[in-house]
Amino acid sequence: MSEQFPALVVIGPLLAALMVSVAGWLRPRLCLPLALLGLGIAAAASTGLLAQVLAHGPISYRLGGWPPPWGIVYHLDNLNAVVAALVSWVALVNLVAAHRAVLTDYPDKIGPFYTLYVLAVTGMLGMVVTGDAFNLYVLLEITSLTGYALIGLGGGRAPLASLNYLFLGTIGASFYLLGVGYLYIVTGSLNMADLARLLAPLHGSLALTAAFAITLVGLWMKMAFFPLHAWLPNAYGFAPSPAASLLAPLMTKVMVYVMIRVMISVFTVEFILREVLLSQFVVWLAVAAMVGGALMALGQRDLKRMLAYIVVAEVGYMVGGAWLGNRLAMTGAILHIINDAVMTFCVFLAAGCIFQKRRGTAFEDLQGLFKKMPWTMAALAAGALAVIGVPPTCGFFSKWYLIRGGLEAGHWGFVAGLIFSSLVNVVLFFRVFEIAFFEPLDHGHGHGETGGAVALTEAPLSMLLPLMAAALGLLALGLATGPLVERVILPIIPAGLG
Amino acid sequence: MEHYIPLFLTKYNYWVYTTLMMIGLWAMIAKNNLVKKIVGMNIFQTAIILFYVSIGAKYGATIPIIEHGAGHGAEAAIRAADYINPLPHVLMLTAIVVSVATLGVALALVINIHRRHHTLEEDEILEQLREP
């Protein structure tokens, strides 16, 4: 059984998505249990895989028994085993919290919502475990298409935001496909390990540089790296809150993982270290992302949109870390993928809890919330401390590695940008806390049928428990940084990095 | 100059796909009507499909179907140059499915937008959104 885990990670949720869509027509009550079952299988299998990979080294799984260069391989090493476990657990915990929001906001769309949700997670997990460049494109589009639909479910400006995301996302995916086409022309292979072997003698050729640049631009569009981030704030700001707390933490992080995978497993470190000018350029773009994301977040008057701009800045941290070109920074980038997924999840879920009760997340809606929703706000505060980077939450440790990496590379701009954006995060979150703590709840302002101030209570338990799990996860990850770096991350940092 | 003419003539498939791609990109950026933008997106995707299809083609080659019982031993050996490369074509079947699905999602979103704003001109929609 356990040797089938790599297939099970993808097949489990895929079959569940099919059954959920049928259940949506016949028995909508069965949708949630089926979705939970599918994601539960994925979470169990990915955890099992992580244990196997840590104990016995990388796993190669041949789909249909075809040997690697011809068939599609699922290749798991420390890097993607840990990302797969992360994706499946965050998605599972968020699904529990999504239940109430879906019942109140989309009672007639239960079937479609859960189907899209499970399919999106299937696509992400597939992208993470696959070892085939073209297979990755298909799974990327599965995730993106379901993501567009999930965002489009929201009211107001959501469909327009989703359509803009669709345009930019399609351009991004098409660029990735084009880059893979160039690689196929020069090598005749699509398997990542095979590509790395065949590309080694071609380093320095113009076609390869073109393929690299085109692929990267495509991936950057999908991850909302700074000048290409325009779609993200609207898409995640207007998305239904359960969809936002699935996509915002996971989609960008999975794309950063794909970028690192393409960098170290397809083009290899030797190729990247040759492109010194490109590396310099990308790190400066990352600095622009950190500073620009932070400044644009300052201009927002809505919690969700503010968080969306913080995501733009966080993408800058990870991309910059991956391109600084030393072991410490790469460790920091990979660690930040894990940490940032959990902390973004925590703050977006808290925003979802607030939306559930206040029907809005504009700053005026936050007044008096520390009194009325103490647990939600406590979790938001924990998430905020992690985003700022206060020890012992996990955010501190990945930033620590990133800053040390920046110092070792002698890149003062990166270090300054990272510290600046962390300081702006302090301002951003303490402004939110000031409103929520000191400003009294405006009695005339209450939206919706709750009648405002009097009836406002803590979020339902089914949302609060996942939120607590996420907040505790921040602390647990922070305390587990040592073993996480030692056992999981260091073994996969390529030896070529200085 | 003479150097560039053969480059242009022998690699014309690349010029065709680049031109198509830029036409699509231009439509997505410059057009105001959402459906025209979607048409542009489709041209963009089709350009890449054409690129893949063209790289599988070979001069004087035929479709990759091999007859049974054509011979034994050395006679049965296949000369790859006689057959076009089927792999990029098969990949593009998947890419076509993806592009059709993208088109479907985009049109569904457009219907949703039209129901809400009663127009598909982007500037009019943005103006409506600014008003309240």
UniProtKB/TrEMBL annotation, chain A:
Chain segments annotated as transmembrane: 6-26, 33-59, 79-98, 110-128, 165-186, 198-221, 254-273, 279-299, 306-324, 330-355, 375-398, 410-430, 464-485
Membrane topology qualifier: Multi-pass membrane protein
The entry's keywords: Cell membrane, Membrane, Transmembrane, Transmembrane helix
Domain NADH:quinone oxidoreductase/Mrp antiporter transmembrane: 132-421
Pfam families from the UniProt entry: Proton_antipo_M (PF00361)
GO terms for MF: NADH dehydrogenase (ubiquinone) activity
InterPro entries recorded: CPA3_Na-H_Antiporter_D, NADH_UbQ_OxRdtase, ND/Mrp_TM
Family recorded in the similarity comment: Belongs to the CPA3 antiporters (TC 2.A.63) subunit D family.
Protein's name in the database: Cation:proton antiporter
UniProtKB/TrEMBL annotation, chain B:
Protein name as annotated: Na+/H+ antiporter subunit C
Main location group: membrane
Pfam families in UniProt: Oxidored_q2
Keyword rRNA-binding: no
Transmembrane segments: 12-30, 42-61, 90-111
A GO CC annotation given for this chain: plasma membrane
Location of the protein in the cell: Cell membrane
Family: Belongs to the CPA3 antiporters (TC 2.A.63) subunit C family.
Coiled-coil intervals: none
Domain of life: Bacteria
Topological category with respect to the lipid bilayer: Multi-pass membrane protein
